[in-house]
Amino acid sequence: MNRLAHIIWHRLTGLMPGELDANEVLWLISPHQQSPLLARRRAMVVVNRVRLFAFLFAVLTPLWSIVDYVVFPFPLWFFLAGMRLVAAGAFAALVICYKPSGNLLNAYRAMALLFAIPTVFYVVSHQVLTSFDLTGMSAAIGAGYAFLPFVLLAGLAIFPLTFLENLAFIAPMLLSQVLAQILSWGQLNWPSFAGAFWLMALIAGVANLAGMSQLAFMVALVRQAIRDPLTGVHSRRSAEEILELYGSVANRAETPLSVAFIDLDNFKSINDRYGHDEGDRALRRASKAINESLRSGDILTRWGGEEFLLIMPNTRLPDAQAALERLTGQGLGRRPDGTLLTASVGIAERIHDKASQWEQLIEIADRRMYLAKQSGRNRIVVHDLAADAPQD
Fold this sequence. Notes:
single chain; alpha+beta; 2 domains; Alpha-Beta Plaits; 14 helices; 5-stranded mixed beta sheet; 8% strand
């Protein structure tokens, strides 16, 4: 059984060769293990697309009242027009009130509202239409209302969602179709209902695959955008985004946040004596050595040149210092001549250093890193004992 599951898994991942790493394939199933940066960017994309979808519905929904006015009797038209105006107002409020915030729960709420509005409209309009004896063109236009759930399910395809997220939005729409038919039980045509429900399930499956495909493409793009091409660790740009995210969370929750500036000692001599290729290899060895010693939750970024920034969420200053002492105790790989590659480290922590902004943390850690260099290199500084010392 395990062998069969492994074969199926291998075949599925083979459908997207080169797009995703093995550990990233699980991100297509559930959002729980996704990186904070991916979740943040995905949330912004989802809200932007919700607002676009809502804008289109806000414009098109009341315009269809013109068609209803031509074909429906006045009492039916008047009721449907009122419903359309209410729905259009709700869509407009969605466009105005929801802004991209990078919060995935906020994105879920926006999507839920977007699909709830037309779903309620469909259930109510279905009951009203079945209470009228429509014929000819009126019956044809009335039957067109039944296509609204199909449009909604197809619309899911524009959102980069995981398999489980898609199911969470698909299930209420399928249930609303069942509810609408139950409410009109006396006029239920079972063959027609079964065929329509099967077609909706098929569209839902295709939309789910389309959403997962969009998500896979986004995962690959985000990975390329946030990684340093030489070392494979996070880039400076992604570090700034991570610090903004973690900093705001730490400020709200009043939790510690530590950062460590790591500057490789005498690195320029490697480039001068052995060439830049050897320098690049030394950087890769150093980043690998640091990565292998990281604790769960710590994030290593390349800040620039031979400088690395280690982000340590929910970590107090003494714990950060102990972690860095373990990390640098055995050296950070080897120099081309076989000697240990060492580093000068400065550490700052949000609560201890009274830094309300992440930029302040970077400035303090950077200053302390220079103090470590001026004090003889290959050491860690956690206090501004010589904050007024000149920097070289």
